[in-house]
Amino acid sequence: MGAEVRSWRIHRRTRHTFAQLARFINPIVRGWIQYYGAFYRSALEPLLRRINAYLVRWIRRKYKRLAGFKKAKECFQGITQRYPGMFFHWRFARHFWCSG
Predict the structure, then answer these.
(1) 12 domain residue, yes or no
(2) pTM of the model
(3) Separation of alpha carbons 60 and 29, rounded Å
(4) Which of 12, 52, 70, 83 has its CA 20 to 30 A from that of 95?
């Protein structure tokens, strides 16, 4: 699953909007959570953290004024608070935003 997430190259899709990224990612992550979450939910936490880290990297690349990690992190946290259901995995692991 980690290789699959890396192959998406989320951080390089700067021509997409956040909503377009959500439409692309949500069906796949929903299936992973429904299948693997039933057996070993804690194993999904690093994967969900990685997806969020890629989303923060996407913010840093798309919006140059948010290139600093602290600013991008604050922006990401604001988005998660304003739109808590945008990404499927935020409903289950909102406190796993990213490490760094």
Answers:
(1) no
(2) 0.88
(3) 23
(4) 12
